[in-house]
Structures are given as C-alpha cells and as structure tokens.
Amino acid sequence: MKTINFLTSHFVPENTACTNRVLAFIRELEKNYKINVICLTQKGKIQENSKVAYSENIDIYYVNQKNFDGKNFFKRAFNELFYIRKLVKISKKIDYDLIMVTSPYMFMIPIVGFTLRGPKILDIRDLVWEYLDDRNIIKRMIKNTLKFIMLQGIRRFDHITVTNDYEATLLRDGYSVKNIDILFNGIEKSRFDQLIKIGLKEDTYFTVTYVGNIGLAQNLQTIIDAAKRLPEVKFLLIGDGIELQDLKDYAERHQINNVNFAGKVAWHMLQGYYEKTSVLYAQLDEKYISAVPSKLYEYASIGLPIIYGGIGQAVKFVEKLENSIVVTPGDVEDLVDAIKEIKEKNVTISKKNRILVKERYLRETAAEEIVNIVNEVIR
Which residues contact residue 122 at a Cβ distance below 8 angstroms, ignoring those fewer than 6 apart? Predict the structure, then answer.
C-alpha cells in the first residue's frame, strides 16, 4: 500500500471548512492508501499527543500552534513560515510516495514546492495573495513579489486542484499553470441529511443568523449596524475570530441589545439554532472575488431564505438559489431593505436549493475525483 503525506494547517478536532474538505478527501483515499496527516493544532490549543491513530490507515501528526495576531500581515506571515517549516520537517522523516498540500496558509505552497521531493498535489482553497492590498507602491511591491513566489511554488507541483471556475481561469490564463481540476467545495452527505430535516417553526421570533468565521474578511459590523436600525428583529452571530471581541464591544458601546453572540458552537449543536432562524446571512468583503464561503452550501441545504453580501463567485452560486437576495457588501441600507423584504413575505423552505446541493455540492463527489487524480499522479 502506497503512502500519502497530507500537509494542512487545519484538521480535527478544529471544525473549519478546510478540515471538512481534507476529511472528505482522506476518508476516500484511505480505502487504497496509507495516509499521514501532518497538521497544525488550532491556534492556542495544545495537543498533548503529537501522534494519534485516527483510523487503521490514517495517522495524525500534530504541531502545536501558539496564538498570534492574525490582523498584522507581517506577524501572520512570520508565524505561517515558522509553523509550515515544522510540518515539512516532520514529513521529511516519514517515507512517502506522494505529498498532498492544502491552503489557506499560502506559504505552504513555496515551502513544500521547493523543499519536498517526489510527486506533489496542491489543493488551493483560496488565492489569498490576490486579496492583498496594493493601494500604494510599497504594498504593490509586496503583493507582486508574493505573486511571483507563489507562481514559482505552484509550478513545482504535478497537479493542482481549486474550488471554483474563477480560480482555475486565473491560474490558467494569468499564471500559465496546467494540470488543473476544479473540485467544488460543498457539504458532507451526513450533514446534508441532518439539515434537510429542519423545518419552519411558526412561533419563532424573526431572527437573522450568521454562522462562520468572525474576521476582517467578513466585515460583520455591517450586520451590527443593521440590527440597530431593526430593533424588532433578533440577530444571532455564531462563530469565533479575531473581530469577535471588537464587535461585542461595538454593540455594547452603541447599546445595540438585539444582537446575541453565541461564540463557537459544535456542529451537532447548530441544528437547534437553525430551527429558530428566519433568515441566514453571510458576507465577504468585495476584494474576495474568488472566494465562496463554504457555509453557503450549508445554508442552501437548510432551504431557509439567504441574504449574501458580496461579489464574484459566491454571487454566481447564490443566484442559482431560491429565497436568496444579494446585497452590496458593507452596505447597511441594502441589508436592512433585504431583511425587511423577507420579513414581509411568508418564509418558506426551498426544496430546489436542497436538490441543487445534493446533485452538485456533496463533498463525497469531490473526494471521488481526488482519488482519480491521485491514482493518475502516482500510478
């Protein structure tokens, strides 16, 4: 049985979109391959056992990751470089037939590309370097330098997978990269099967719910400001991130009392919150043109109305859905109007949205495709 070393910045027990994508891949791959997952712990969380047997054919090697300031680009870059080198050091000590790597830690690409030998597959979940600010000459120089470094790293992989058409087109046309396949993000079938059981509760107070990361990219002050304008509506924010405390302070400072911050919630507990929800909300800043929040697939599986603030690839997905409204990211007036519009209607569950997810966006489908790619690369 051949061996794959899979390097990732996120893995169990951390519940992230990256974790779920990697899990879907390795659960399918372990049927024919031995898998060593070499990963970082969640920031600030200590894993006492550095090696854990996850299943008969999957071993996990943990590197403990300290908490660091994710808002500061240079601190983030330094820590990414520091911890990725630790992952690579472990991988070099374990015999392998194939290296697999996934972002979003972008420095994983050049470090692994230049330092680990043998066949390599790169799974790009996000073109992080494309989002960097370039509004002055210094920032533009930094961005262009990073783009060059990423390109040189990408070219050292035998095969590339991405999550949407935009990413594939940019790499093919802008970077002249070949051997690219699109493996859409999505949702696990087991979770989908749970979410489609959720129905409407007539006695539920009208509630707008956000679930996901609470960071700079989400710019969730927009929904807090909307809450101030709509005191008769409840707002629920579920998740954690570098902006959470700032948002709590902002809401308290402005005496916005109809917003509840639930913090990070285990997935099996989310169903109870979804059952009390009237509208599901998500947002990404307009510079994240290529990103599609994985939470949108979860929202669509539920079938409740969705309001999405953003542009680009995510909008193309949302526009396929019923019960959905796209608003300008960061536009409070736009968001308030969308909430009022849905509130005045009879909220219904969309069967069409559920069918779309089932037919096109189950993670198991992408996992079957990654097996074919792996077989081809190391045949």
Answer: 100, 101, 102, 109, 112, 113, 154, 157, 159, 160, 161
Length of the chain in terms of residues written: 379
Domain containing residue 348: 189-359
Rounded (10°) CA dihedral 283, 289, 290, 292 = 10
The closest alpha carbon to 321, from 371, 282, 370, belongs to 282
* CATH assignment of the domain containing 135: 3.40.50.2000
Give the model confidence (pLDDT) of 340-372 as tens digits.
999 998 878 999 999 999 999 999 999 999 999
78-137 pLDDT per residue, tens:
999 999 999 999 999 999 999 999 988 999 999 999 999 999 999 999 898 888 888 889
Dihedral of the alpha carbons of 223, 226, 227, 231, in degrees to the nearest 10: -170
pTM, two decimals, is: 0.89
